[in-house]
Amino acid sequence: MTQQCPHRTLQVEPSAYAHEVGFEWQSPTQRLAATTRSGRVPILSGASIGGSSSGGGRRREGADEPVVTQVAKDLLASFPGPLVLPTDELAWDPGYEPQSFQSWSRDKTRNRPTAARKTLYVAAVPEITEEVGFMREWLRPQSPGAACSYPELKSPDLDDYVAYLGAFYHGFIVKPFPQKLRFVSWDQRDRSGKFQYVGLATEDGNCTRIRARTAPDKVFSKQLNLADVLDAEISMLPKDAYAMALLVDHDLYEDEEDDFCCGRAYGLNRVCVVSTARYHPILDDGAKLDLEHVWPASHCKAFVNGQCAEADVHRGTRAVAVSAKSPMRAAIQAASQIRHDENMSSSSAVAAAYLRTLWFSRLVRTVSHELGHNLYLDHCVYYACMMQSTTGMAEDLRQPPYLCPVCLAKIVHKVVVELQRGDGENTAKKDAYILERYEALAQVCERWKEVGLFVGFQVWLRSRIELVRNERNQNS
C-alpha cells in the first residue's frame, strides 16, 4: 500500500500561479452580486447564498463590507475558488469574461423551455454494424502508455446517465433517445485522401456522412469529425426536446489543428456530443495522472504548492481556515477512504466493476457540463465549478461535480421560473427546489459507492443540505 497524502490544509483561494499569469479573481462583493438578477449583493448568509439564487431569510442589500467579506469567506468552505494551476485553461486565458446571473438572464439569444419542449434526451453509443466492422479497431488505444493489463470494459450504461442527469437537472424530464443509432458504410470516396467516410444512421432512414481521419497523436488510430456528428444530431432532434446529448465511444476531433476533442455543445442548436475514448482508465498510466489528488482532494494545499513549484513559483498563498465539519473537508475525508490501488489489486471482477464506474464518473460530469452549455451556461470563473473550462484530463479530474452559487442561480431560474412558471421573487420556492435537487443527487450517488467522486459528492451534498436547513430554521 502506498503512502497516502493527509490533505491537512485546503486551498480555497486561487493558487500563487494565478497571480503569476494575471488572473484577477472576482471580489467578494462581485461574487455575491453575481448570484442575483439585480446584480446587487443579496441576503448575507453563506448557507442561503450557496443554497439559492437570492437566499432565504432577511433581505439586506448594500451591506457593510466586513459582513460581505465574512459571508464570502464562509462560502469558500463549500465552494472554493478556481485553482488556476500551470497548464489550466484559466492560466492560458486568465482574462476570460465572467457570466453573471444578471448577464445570463438578460441574454435574448438563450433558449427557454416551453410546455412542449422540456425534455433532455441522451442518445446511446451508436452500434457498429458488420459492414463497418473495421471501426472496432478504431476504439483500441495505440499508445504504448496504455495499461494492457486492464480488463476489457463495456461502455457505461445509458440508464446510469439518465438517472444521474435526471437528478442533476432536476425539474427537467430526462429520457433515453428513442431511436437506435448505427454506424453504416458510406460509398462516397474522398479524393484528397485525407478522410475515410462512414455514415451515422437512424431507425427512420436518415443517414449523415461522418469524416474520419488518422489521429495525429497516435493514441487512437482514427478519429471522427465532431462537427459532422453534431450535424447528424441536429437532424434527429425530437420536437419535444429542450436539448440532447449524444455519446460516442470513438475519439473525436473538431478541426485540423486539434489533436482531439472530448466533447462540444452547440448551444443555440441544443445539441452536444461527448466521446468516451479519452476518459477510459486504460490511458491513465500514460497520462501520468495523480489519482490521489482528483476532486475533492485537488484542493489539498500541499498538492497545489507542489504544482506551482514545478512551474518555478514558490510564493505561497495565505492560509484560510476551513472547519473540519465543512462540506469540502467532509467530502475529502469520505473520498479518501476509497483507494484506487486497493480496488485494482482485488479480483478481476471487482477491478472491472470499479474501473467501469470510474470511467462513468468522469464521463457523466462532462455530459453534465456540455448540457449546461445547452442551457446557455458559459464557462465559469467565479469558483471551482462543474462549468469551469479545462485543457485536458488532469484538469478535468480536478474539477468538482457541483454547480457554484452563480451557475446554480441560473439553473434555479431556468427550472422554477421558466419551466415551472413560478414567481421569480419567491425565494422560498427556490430554496425548496435547491434542497430537492441536492437530495435527488445525494440519493442517485448511492448507486456508485466504489468511486471516490460519488462518495465525496454525496457527503458534500448532505453537508450542504444540513447547512441550508439550519440557516432556514434560524431565519424562520
Topology:
Elements: H1 16-21, H2 28-33, H3 46-51, H4 65-75, H5 89-92, H6 101-106, E1 119-123, E2 127-128, H7 158-168, E3 173-176, E4 182-185, E5 196-201, E6 207-214, E7 222-225, H8 226-236, E8 241-248, E9 252-253, E10 263-266, E11 271-275, H9 284-287, H10 301-310, H11 327-335, H12 340-344, H13 348-374, H14 393-398, H15 405-419, H16 427-445, H17 452-475
Parallel strand pairs: 1-3, 1-8, 2-4, 7-9, 8-11
Antiparallel strand pairs: 4-5, 5-6, 6-7, 10-11
Helix pairs in contact: 7-13, 7-16, 11-17, 16-17
Written account of the structure:
The protein is an alpha/beta fold and 476 residues long. It folds into two domains: 16-109 and 288-475, no CATH class; 119-282, Collagenase (Catalytic Domain) (3-Layer(aba) Sandwich), CATH 3.40.390. 38% of the residues lie in helices and 11% in strands. The protein contains 17 helices and eleven strands. The strands form two sheets. Strands 2-4-5-6-7-9 form a six-stranded mixed beta sheet. A five-stranded mixed beta sheet has the order 3-1-8-11-10, with helices on both faces. A hairpin with a 4-residue loop joins β10 and β11 (271-275). α7 (158-168) packs across α13 (348-374) and α7 (158-168) packs antiparallel against α16 (427-445). The longest helix is centred in the last third of the chain and has 27 residues, at 348-374. One of its GO terms (molecular function) is metallopeptidase activity.
Brief write-up:
By secondary structure, this protein is α/β, with parallel strands linked by helices. It has 17 helices and eleven strands.
